[in-house]
Amino acid sequence: EDAVTIAFQTGVDPSKVAQADGDYEKATGKKINWRKFESGAEVIAAVASGDVPIGNIGSSPLAAAASRGLPIQTFLVTGVIGESEALVVRNGSGINKPADLVGKKIAVPYVSTTHYSLLAALKHWKVDAGKVNILNLRPSEIAAAWQRGDIDGAYVWEPALGKVKASGKVLTSSAEVSKWGAPTYDLWIVRQDFAQKNPDFLKQFVKVTGGVFDRYNKDPKGFASNPANVEKIARLTGSKPEEVTALLPGNVYPSLKEQSALLQKPFVKAVSDTSVFLKSQGKVDSLQADYSSYVTNQFINAALR
Amino acid sequence: MSQQEHVLPVPTAPAARQRTWGIRPLAPWQWSSLSIGSLLLLWWALSASGLVPALFLPSPAAVLTKLQSLVVQGYMEATLQQHLLASLQRMLLALLAAVGIGVPLGILIGVFPLLRHWLDPIIEFYRPLPPLAYLPLIVIWFGIGEVSKVLLIFLAILAPVLIATTHGVASVHSIRQQAALSLGASRGQLLRHVILPGALPDILTGIRIGLGAGWSTLVAAELIAATRGLGFMIQSAAQFLGTDIVVLGIIAIALVAFVLELGLRRLQRVLTPWHGKAL
Amino acid sequence: MSQQEHVLPVPTAPAARQRTWGIRPLAPWQWSSLSIGSLLLLWWALSASGLVPALFLPSPAAVLTKLQSLVVQGYMEATLQQHLLASLQRMLLALLAAVGIGVPLGILIGVFPLLRHWLDPIIEFYRPLPPLAYLPLIVIWFGIGEVSKVLLIFLAILAPVLIATTHGVASVHSIRQQAALSLGASRGQLLRHVILPGALPDILTGIRIGLGAGWSTLVAAELIAATRGLGFMIQSAAQFLGTDIVVLGIIAIALVAFVLELGLRRLQRVLTPWHGKAL
Amino acid sequence: MSLLQVDKLTVHYPGQPLPALQQVSLGLSPDELLVALGPSGCGKSTLLNVLAGFIAPTHGTVQFDGKPVSGPGAERAVVFQNDGLLPWLDVAGNVAFGLKLQGVPAAQRAAIVADTLQQVGLADAGGKRVWELSGGMRQRVGIARALASQSRVLLMDEPFGALDAFTREQMQQLLLNVWQRSQRGVFLITHDIEEALFLATSLVLMSPGPGRIVQYLRPTFSQRFLAGESVRAIKSDPEFITLREELLASLTRTQHEEAA
Amino acid sequence: MSLLQVDKLTVHYPGQPLPALQQVSLGLSPDELLVALGPSGCGKSTLLNVLAGFIAPTHGTVQFDGKPVSGPGAERAVVFQNDGLLPWLDVAGNVAFGLKLQGVPAAQRAAIVADTLQQVGLADAGGKRVWELSGGMRQRVGIARALASQSRVLLMDEPFGALDAFTREQMQQLLLNVWQRSQRGVFLITHDIEEALFLATSLVLMSPGPGRIVQYLRPTFSQRFLAGESVRAIKSDPEFITLREELLASLTRTQHEEAA
Ligand SMILES: Nc1ncnc2c1ncn2[C@@H]1O[C@H](COP(=O)(O)OP(=O)(O)OP(=O)(O)O)[C@@H](O)[C@H]1O
Ligand SMILES: Nc1ncnc2c1ncn2[C@@H]1O[C@H](COP(=O)(O)OP(=O)(O)OP(=O)(O)O)[C@@H](O)[C@H]1O
Ligand SMILES: [Mg+2]
Ligand SMILES: [Mg+2]
């Protein structure tokens, strides 16, 4: 049969090594066209167009897509976002505690997981989001605006995160926000029609990913400092090799066993929480009664069997 | 429209009845309405047929409903009117700057070869650059305020205006320049009284093209820390698959741009009635 | 350049010596090189002075080093040459389509008022739309293949070409059309032998403007699941603040665009030497 | 029977106080050389534009060969007061243009062009660009273009206005020869009374404000020339001189009246 | 002393086999009405373009008032063979253009314009757009524009070519009156021998291939007209007729030679 097109993003995670090695092709026996995308919204558009059955997005775009009833399912998590995304405030901005954020300019790429995390953190701190000047900037512009001193803080990911950390301090990170009940994820979605017709493909796909995660979790430092791994990840994502080593430990990569449990109630709850949050922000018009049909551990379980 | 209506076979002669190709049972505006109507019909048919999922092409009815909420409650903390106003301000400011700088500069470039050779590489360097590519540099140099946004739109309008003006200067019949010079026109007077009006038809067309380019840079410009603006609204909504808002934003842009375009065309007809006349 | 060199005060008369404003101690290309040289100098000075951090404006030396690695090892699985080739192919395809469709359509619109009234709203509707706004719709309808990318660039080039062509048609002296018609020109012949060549100066200028617009849409177009292309390269690097690669991409685009522009200008001089002659 | 016929023609340019032409009726038969003479602004070019099909009458009718004229056509070649040459073609290309439109093969075309250029005294200028020509040369290219076409009628608006006396006489004689040989009807506008008398088989004198025909003559001098009589002899014929003075007086009278 | 002077003037258009002018020397004094006569393409317009400063000589010098001419200037007004009117101005605006450039106040300008338009017979046409004019009207606007300017020299390229006999004579007389009153030097190109003889105080006959002066005359008919003699009387004077025939013969001879 013909090739499968998969939309990936440039998030750094161990499975990129398998992707670079062609492990997915070997395991599934199919040719795979890997296509790089810049944002979750674009991946979703591509998935919706039918050209792309499988795509890699964050949990915010997933919630938006699910709330609008796109026929997709989350079948695999590629990372629980941790220290890799953080809210940094600039030295000299006068922000020492969350309450100081009021009236300050905080930049965040709208709709990204950091946007959700920022608002969740503010809610946790009981800071009125309406009183914080939240600006929409892409990471590269965040770095530039930071340099000029135009913004007082930013909730952003690497490598911009590293640049702003150099002259600022971390107020909180997604690892912490996750503990406050607003976890964010990187994950794989699949079109439902494709999932029904190709369970075996997905099973193999999950299996390969689980394999690399296990390899990573066994020895995170060793994996991240292995030049071969680093080179492969850098090549696929376009990041600089020296950054990859630092980026990898920023997220948590749950094993398939953990995911089998995660991709049930807990994940459904995270998606519906995010959706409720989006609704409250006026970003989506209506909510689904139940988000469980957008999440499945069927393929993980199949892989584990 | 009467001046430009009858290009063939009798373009100039404004005699009582003129020959046109084909019959015209309908008035121009009727034709145009028909065309817009058919567009709307197509939209309705596409979304009603279910060929395109509502997620990507919401039905006219859904968009209308959304329009109401946008006008009343707004989106991203601003109503549609406020978004529109913010964008319109940026556009007009950029347009003003682009015309104010582009037309004189284009004329000077057209007239002074030296200046052309000097500026040419610079203009030709910036002209093809994708705004998305140099956005960080704009931010670093001009910050995240209005200046950066207007600058980006300005740059998009400037290039067509400049090129069209230079082209227009080259189109000014040399005999008209000679006539003015031998009536004692100074360089400045020549520019003011002969070259500028002679190039005017082209300049106005350049502005029309430039304005289109400016609008289509709006989203990129409003990527820079905007809190209001049609581009900002569209872009925010697009991220959340809010296609209804995207469609509304698109329609709003199209409408405003269309009104400006019609104004420019009228200006062109009023200011340059001689255009195309063989003299 | 000699034809357009001397716009004032003696634009036509190609007599042996002609009067120009000012002196010209240097040849045109020397002036241009000087201008490019000063740009480079400015770059070097800016980055050496530390006024702009290397993160946003890498030094010429750093970029040069990166160039070597880009040419030899490449970035994102393709060398600079391959990225360039991919983008160039898209551009040329889009240009071909835009000229192939825009010029005939523009001529027909200029000639048939009916067609104009019909198509005008449609053209004016799409023209100001920011590509970034309708990117998702393009993907939905045309997928993530080459078609979508070329389409986006095509749309950017089409508008200026269309408008300039229509403008050009209106610029064709009516007496020339009358002359051809009374020599028995059919409608087709009139279009082919009088209106097309008469509009040619404007059409070529429209293409020049359009090409610039096309290039600046490149990044947006290559946001769509590209695996190669200068826009894709720039975009990928920008995500990781790889400014050296961004700068290289920008320079590559500027260079290629400049070469195309020079070619078009030469074409314009060769094809329309009568432009601006008072006849 | 008239080949080209206007009846009760009125042309009123929009926005103008007076019609440019009012109630003009006129016919041109295939063997006729009809000359229109009249002061500047009396509507001569307007009449020609109507005959050519460039302007539709405000009132009245125009017919060619019994059928209403609905636009320009190959059967009515025009020489313009402003040459109307195509600058993207060289001189030969301009002269060949009508033939090319009609699909005349290249070789035949080249022969006709060479011949016609020779006749108008531009044998060497075929390769020149239009903007390299002097005023008189350009006018002759315009004449050559019309002559080379295979029209049944020639409509000429002051075709010899920019020519020196010698060339002008040559062109007049060329026109008479072409007219005799080809049996094309010719409508010619001139402001030169001598030229009008010498060429015309029919001559209309027009008057402005609004434009109309005030006099109709049928001179015979062109037939005498074609029969072999010398130009000098004809032009010094007392009949010629009398007519010339009469016409001049008429013209002067109408213009004095108008001025008053 | 000459106001405008060319010495050993040669003009060679690039790419042309022959120079358009070769070794032409000529002077125009402030009280002179210099007429250039010659066949089409002999370089008359080229000479005028050099005098006007539109073309620089390939060899030789041009001087105005003893200073080298380096370009066009207000002291040398030009009437073009192709009118060169500005279509964005109406008729009055075109005529007023030179005055406006010189900073003449609006009221004074309006008076001059009205007067000049009256003189060229276009008193009512001031508000018309340029493209609403007939050929002859346009030419007269061009003449009016030059007359209204405050130049010291008038350079006129076939200024009366598109005019009917009556208007033409009026314009000739107008020119003579203006010339006499204003003591402007006039350089005028014509292809009409009678016109040349009637107007000229100096007359050069030019010949093509390459363009040069072959004859230089000093007719006195214009002085006689200004002294009060009637036009008819002058033009039927045997001296006038003889000179006219001689010039025609000269012209014919040079053109025959050339053709051979
Ligand atoms: N711009 C030009 N480029 C090349 N050749 C030219 C140019 N202008 C004129 N010529 C040539 O120079 C010669 C003289 O031209 P010019 O216009 O001076 O003639 P003229 O005496 O004014 O003729 P006419 O009475 O027909 O107007 C002609 O052979 C013409 O072809
Ligand atoms: N396009 C036009 N619009 C308005 N009025 C016009 C137009 N063309 C001509 N006229 C007017 O119509 C009248 C007749 O003009 P026309 O050109 O027919 O004169 P003509 O007899 O050819 O004169 P000439 O000998 O000067 O060429 C003039 O008063 C002129 O102003
Ligand atoms: Mg006329
Ligand atoms: Mg001449």
Automatic annotation (TrEMBL), chains B, C:
InterPro entries: MetI-like (IPR000515), MetI-like_sf (IPR035906). The keyword Cell membrane applies. Residues 84-268 form the ABC transmembrane type-1 domain. Pfam families: BPD_transp_1 (PF00528). Gene3D superfamilies: MetI-like. The keyword Transmembrane applies. The chain crosses the membrane at residues 34-57, 91-113, 125-144, 150-173, 238-260. It is a multi-pass membrane protein. One of its GO terms (cellular component) is plasma membrane. It comes from the Bacteria. Keywords: Cell membrane, Membrane, Transmembrane, Transmembrane helix, Transport. GO terms for biological process: alkanesulfonate transmembrane transport; cellular response to sulfur starvation. It is found in: Cell membrane. Its main location: membrane. Belongs to the binding-protein-dependent transport system permease family. NCBIfam families: PRK10160.1. This is Taurine transport system permease protein. It comes from Pseudogulbenkiania subflava DSM 22618.
UniProtKB/TrEMBL annotation, chains D, E:
CDD domains: ABC_NrtD_SsuB_transporters (cd03293). Keywords: ATP-binding, Cell inner membrane, Cell membrane, Membrane, Nucleotide-binding, Translocase, Transport. Residues 4-233 form the ABC transporter domain. It comes from the Bacteria. InterPro entries: AAA+_ATPase, ABC_transporter-like_ATP-bd, ABC_transporter-like_CS, ABC_transporter_ATP-bind, P-loop_NTPase. This is Taurine transport system ATP-binding protein. The keyword Zinc does not apply. SMART domains: AAA. Belongs to the ABC transporter superfamily. One of its GO terms (molecular function) is ATP hydrolysis activity.
